[in-house]
Amino acid sequence: MKIPFCDFCVKSGILCQKCRELIDSGRNSDFDLKISRILLEEASRIRELEKIEFKKAHVEDGFLLILSNNDGVRILRDRKEIVERIIRDTGVEKVTVVDYRKDQKRKLEELVYPSRIVGLSKVWLPGNITEFKIMVEGKELDENQVQKLEKLAKKLGINVRIQIP
Ligand SMILES: [Zn+2]
């Protein structure tokens, strides 16, 4: 498993200088440390987790976005018990996993999962800014949740307006 911190620091809770600097510099957060600890603990039980790279987490009003690799997206979708533990231990209401290496369109697909993108267009705004407009289908998204997803997308450097039916 690849995490931003040393395994030992995560397990002991006492950070070496290198790990401390990740937090002090703002590159990673205490929340990232918490997620790293959960994943490490679960990996002793679920061997498959060794394939995961955990890069960073973003939180927006109860929505947790985990940046991971392709295996991370697959495993955390399959293994509901891990996501349930993350929700229990951190108090968030929803967990989404995105592969940070994918292009913007694929990131958006993963961001809105399990809803599906049924329409997508890209517009260029003044100042060389691009913005996606996507139409998603799925029963569980309301306006409030859409706003949280748009804010999380922004943290990934993606401007998007999400429309629901
Ligand atoms: Zn360390």
What labels would you give this structure?
single chain, 2 domains, three-stranded mixed sheet, GMP Synthetase, Chain A, domain 3, alpha/beta, 165 residues, 42% helix, binds zinc ion
pLDDT < 50 runs, ≥5 residues = none
* Helix and strand sequence: HHHEEHHEHEEHE
Proportion of beta-strand residues: 25-35%
Q: Which strands sit side by side, in order, in the main sheet?
A: 1-2-3
Radius of gyration: 17 Å
Record field, number of beta strands: 6
Secondary structure class reads alpha/beta
- The end-to-end span amounts to 39 Å
- What is the helical fraction, as a range of percent? 40-55%
List the helices and strands and how they pair.
Elements: H1 7-12, H2 17-24, H3 30-43, E1 54-60, E2 63-68, H4 70-78, H5 80-90, E3 94-99, H6 104-112, E4 116-125, E5 129-137, H7 143-155, E6 160-163
Parallel strand pairs: 2-3, 5-6
Antiparallel strand pairs: 1-2, 4-5
The chain binds zinc ion.
Written overview of the protein:
The chain is globular. The chain folds into 2 domains: 101 residues, no CATH class; 63 residues, RimP-like superfamily, N-terminal (GMP Synthetase, Chain A, domain 3). The chain contains 7 helices and 6 strands, in the order αααββααβαββαβ. Helix 3 runs antiparallel to helix 5. Strands 1-2-3 form a 3-stranded mixed sheet, with helices on both faces. Strands 4-5-6 form a 3-stranded mixed sheet. Helix content is 42%, strand content 25%. It is α/β, with parallel strands linked by helices and 165 residues long. Strand 5, helix 7 and strand 6 form a beta-alpha-beta unit. The model has no long low-confidence stretch (mean pLDDT 96).
